[in-house]
UniProtKB/TrEMBL annotation:
One MF term in the entry's GO annotations: copper ion binding
The protein's name in its UniProt record: Uncharacterized protein
A Pfam family assignment: CopB
Keywords for this protein: Plasmid
Matches recorded under InterPro entries: Cu-R_B_prcur
One GO term describing the cellular component: cell outer membrane
Organism annotation: Vreelandella sulfidaeris
Any one GO BP annotation for this protein: intracellular copper ion homeostasis
Length: 72
């Protein structure tokens, strides 16, 4: 679960979520994972933003540093 939002302590208002993603992650190689799931964007506690639902596909990884000098 991954979310993004805002909450100011002591202002008397509810917390606001701007986006919420529910993802499944699968390791496909060393240092690489494939994620997929569903996402929601909009005001969960308020109606400030239009609601929308969408699919999420992500490839997340760390590539090794491979530097080769260029000769001219």
């Amino acid at each position: 679960m991954e979310g993004e939002g805002e909450n100011v302590q002591g202002d008397g208002e509810d917390a606001e979520f701007e986006s919420l993603n529910l993802l499944y992650s699968r390791l496909i190689a060393d240092f690489w994972e494939l994620q997929g799931g569903i996402g929601y964007q909009g005001g969960i506690a308020t109606n400030d933003y239009p609601e929308r639902y969408f699919g999420v596909i992500s490839l997340l990884g760390l590539a090794p540093i491979a530097s080769r000098p260029i000769s001219t």
